Amino acid sequence: FQVNWAGTKNSWCSAAKIVILPCRWLAARSLFPLSCLPMSTSIEKPRKWEKKNRIVYPPQLPGEPRRPAEIYHCRREIKYSNQKMWYLAKLIKGMSIDQALAQLEFNDKKGAKVIKEVLLEAQELAVRKHNVEFKSNLHIAESMSGRGRYTKRIRYHGKGMFGVMKIVRCHYFVKLVEGPPPPPEPPKTGFDQAKEYVQQLRNRTLVHTL
Amino acid sequence: IMAALLLLLPPLPLPRLRGVLQRCWGRVQRRLFPGLSGNLSPPWGPALAVQAPAFIPEPVSGTQESAEAPSIFDSIFWMAVPKKRRTIEVNRCRRRHPNKLIKVKRNIDVCPECGNLKQKHVLCGYCYAKVKAETRLIRMEMGKKEGGPFNAPTVETVVLYDGEKPTEKDEGKRIIERARKRLSWFVQD
């Protein structure tokens, strides 16, 4: 999709929308990456998830099926471990938002409280800004955790010894999509695997011959 | 050849230095070329170097507990230690095994009183908090009436809300007044 700025000069202000025409999606930034210039020790971290809420699709044609609304939300620099957050993110993948909130409410982990807040915020955003009719009609399409910035500190041991400890932080990303959750995939049976194997054998052919 | 050179060199350096050099060189020669100086025995091949203990070990019946320090060191050598670094694939298989993932709870219901979620075998959190708050206020009233510790009366207590009078059944009981409307869930008698 080609980007149409629709007359906005400063395109990266928060109020601007990026309109997608049915061509290619071009990044509007200049191709010269600024990160190679020696600016300072801390480089701007890429914050792409927040920008995903800004895409605007062209109006749908009358015959097309309705495109479900997508809401992207995240929280950055949560004081929790990435690895521990992953288990919670894996728990709620693919659930409806009500079920996810129920599971998180009765989970004893610290990250569960944080994720619950994030989900409620995202639900609120969906209803207010993204034209979602029923707040229960959402399901979690993607839920991921990422590594935040780690800082190193000294941990004092006995006998004058010390260790270096890492203060660990993480990000949490969630994508809500309107509609009921998709049915879970049935687990692969042995019969299916055998059928696939036979099909692979049958697909074999001779190469570089007549 | 080198000895001849050495003999030639000397005029400038001191005679003592020359002597030292000659002796050093002689030693080096004997080490490297043992067959050159004819007086020595024919060169001997590599010999087995056996490390014999400095002392003859005592018979077995000797003191066993004297070897205390060696036994500690022995136990250090035999400690369990990882042989190889665990690869990320192996680590992932262990960390993502179903028994390590969080189980989905199937015992969550809706509380019929307030409509919040509750676990089946646990009291509803919202209702419990609400009861706890009211109990705290009643206890503060009781504390004001008693005036100090260890003054709890030996009779029963009755809590009365706005506009309620004590009945004949509440004759000898202590009465606590609460200045508000009776709560729906706090049923009288």
Automatic annotation (TrEMBL), chain A:
InterPro entries: Ribosomal_uL22 (IPR001063), Ribosomal_uL22_bac/org-type (IPR047867), Ribosomal_uL22_sf (IPR036394). It is found in: Mitochondrion. Keywords: Mitochondrion, Ribonucleoprotein, Ribosomal protein, Transit peptide. SUPFAM superfamilies: Ribosomal protein L22. It comes from Urocolius indicus. The gene is Mrpl22. Belongs to the universal ribosomal protein uL22 family. Pfam families: Ribosomal_L22 (PF00237). GO terms for molecular function: structural constituent of ribosome. GO terms for biological process: translation. Its main location: mitochondrion. This is Large ribosomal subunit protein uL22m.
UniProtKB/TrEMBL annotation, chain B:
Residues 1-19 form the signal peptide. One of its GO terms (cellular component) is mitochondrial large ribosomal subunit. GO terms for biological process: translation. It is found in: Mitochondrion. SUPFAM superfamilies: Zn-binding ribosomal proteins. One of its GO terms (molecular function) is structural constituent of ribosome. Pfam families: Ribosomal_L32p (PF01783). Coiled coil: none annotated. Keywords: Mitochondrion, Ribonucleoprotein, Ribosomal protein, Signal, Transit peptide. InterPro entries: Mitoribosomal_protein_bL32 (IPR051991), Ribosomal_bL32 (IPR002677), Ribosomal_zn-bd (IPR011332). It comes from the Eukaryota. Its main location: mitochondrion. Component of the mitochondrial large ribosomal subunit (mt-LSU). The mitochondrial ribosome (mitoribosome) is a large ribonucleoprotein complex responsible for the synthesis of proteins inside mitochondria. Belongs to the bacterial ribosomal protein bL32 family. This is Large ribosomal subunit protein bL32m.
